[in-house]
Design brief:
The protein has 10 helices and 8 strands. By secondary structure, the protein is an alpha/beta fold. Among the domains are: 48 residues, no CATH class; 132 residues, Rossmann fold (3-Layer(aba) Sandwich), CATH 3.40.50.1400.
Length: 324
């Protein structure tokens, strides 16, 4: 069913998820994800034989087992939380007097960006908000790529407002600090806060502002919490392949802290707008095992912002600047 026409539409987007925790579904998802030149910069002539001849024969089965560990009665956590964010954001905008439709489109998988645009119908202006606080070519720019590729076939292309990140927005920083305070009452000599961001190859720093924005966001969150430099740290997770990635690595930081006698660690992932495989399995489960194996005493994962009211208000503030 096509949505009614209107002056404004809002498209929110995240990375995407397999439709099921099965090797076949994961294979379809990874085939699309790992074919993106923003993600894998190798020439397709070189990469596609590796992807289809090796990676997609081995990785889907392993990844499916990981997805099975976090799958819920609602299905994919990322999709569920993203849908909650869409509904909450639309309601918040309505509460502020804006009769605006909000649609969800994933960069990979379903619902796709083209499906979200079809849901919005004909609009005069489109506000696009990828839910990546820190800008990266591999996420935000890739989303804009597919958006323009989809819209260039539309003879009635709307005016487009692109929100290319919000790493230092006050509302976002305070939402992160509030979420942390809800789970971490104090930071004593035996307790540390680790802010973990998704990693990228180290060479990305030459052309991508992502790493710098992560570091700045982390510092602002720590300052808002009133933490001294020795009470918190930053790490990068989710390495893939043989190349060196952004450092320090999250698991290395956890091992070092445990080795120095830090008994309690709280981990929060500011770069993930919604809980997903990388937070619920990699951090809440795998990193917990790393810390405890290194003789740490207690590991606490702090949930992502998801549909936290302050997060939704921060997103609404971004949208309203363009509505106004």
């Amino acid at each position: 069913m096509t949505a009614p026409t209107g002056p404004f539409g809002v498209l929110i987007s995240n990375l995407g998820t397999p439709e099921a925790p099965t090797p076949a579904a994961v294979r379809r998802y990874l085939a699309e994800f790992l074919s993106d030149r923003r993600v894998i910069a190798l020439s397709p002539i070189l990469w596609q034989p590796i992807l289809h001849g090796f990676v997609l024969r081995i990785r889907p089965r392993r990844s499916a087992r990981l997805y099975q560990k976090i799958w819920t009665e609602h299905g994919s956590p990322l999709l569920y939380h993203s849908q909650q964010q869409r509904d909450a954001l639309e309601q918040e905008l309505h509460n502020r007097g804006h009769s605006v439709r909000v649609a969800l489109g994933m960069r990979y998988g379903h619902p796709s960006i083209s499906e979200a645009l079809e849901e919005l119908g004909s609009v005069e202006s489109l506000i696009v908000l990828p839910l990546y606080p820190q800008f990266s070519d591999t996420t935000t720019a890739s989303t804009f790529d597919v958006l323009h590729k989809t819209l260039e076939r539309d003879p009635s292309m709307p005016h487009i407002s692109l929100i290319a990140g919000y790493a230092n927005e006050e509302g976002y920083i305070h939402a992160c600090a509030t979420r942390i305070r809800e789970h971490m009452s104090e930071c004593d000599s035996q307790t540390r806060l680790l802010l973990s961001f998704h990693g990228l190859p180290a060479e990305s720093e030459k052309h991508d502002p992502y790493a710098q924005q992560c570091r700045r966001s982390a510092k602002q969150i720590a300052d808002t919490l009133g933490l001294a430099e020795d009470q918190w740290g930053l790490g990068f997770q989710s390495r893939f392949g043989p190349k060196e990635w952004l450092k320090p690595y999250t698991d290395d930081v956890l091992r070092q802290w445990a080795g120095r006698g830090m008994q309690n660690v709280f981990v929060f992932c500011p770069g993930f707008a919604a809980d997903c495989l990388e937070t619920l399995e990699e951090i809440a489960q795998q990193s917990r095992e790393v810390f405890l194996a290194a003789r740490g005493q207690a590991f606490y994962y702090i949930p992502a912002l998801n549909d936290h009211p302050q997060h939704i208000q921060a997103l609404a503030n971004l949208v309203c600047r363009h509505l106004n």
